[in-house]
Amino acid sequence: MAVNLQSGGRARGGRRRRSRPMAEINVTPMVDVMLVLLIIFMVAAPLLTVGVPIELPKTAAAPLPSEQEEPLTIALTADGQILVQNEAIAREQLIPLLRAVSEERKSDKIFLRADGTIPYEGVMQVMGALNASGFRNIGLVTEQGGPKFDGSDG
Known about the structure:
Oligomer: single chain
Low-confidence stretches: none
Strand content: 5-15%
Order of helices and strands: HEEEHEHE
Distance between the termini: 108 Å
Mean pLDDT: 76
Number of strands: 5
Shape: elongated
Number of helices: 3
Largest sheet: 5 strands, mixed
């Protein structure tokens, strides 16, 4: 048997074997894109959150949406009286009454209305009593039409 040494080891008439196409996916560009998207969402997410839900007297804020359960309302009058749902109560009765009410209610939402002439300290004392009574979602009620930060009125 004779061996042809001139062919250089090529198979069948001098044709080379074709290599198959690569069937693997290059994951590196996909990982790069995903990391960029992750960074974008991490930076943008804190900007999408709503600020502190507290309204102060005489603002241009819109009213809060109504709920199914009638909201509990506490009012502080200019002469220092505390009204719970339009019923006057003594200051020392506020926390026990609110604790009993909070056990019966599903929602911990409460609205606080205070006369604009009451010192800030008096409003904060009542807010502390509301918090101690189990109400953590306190909304301060205001009137619309107050001054805006752009210098215009109402």
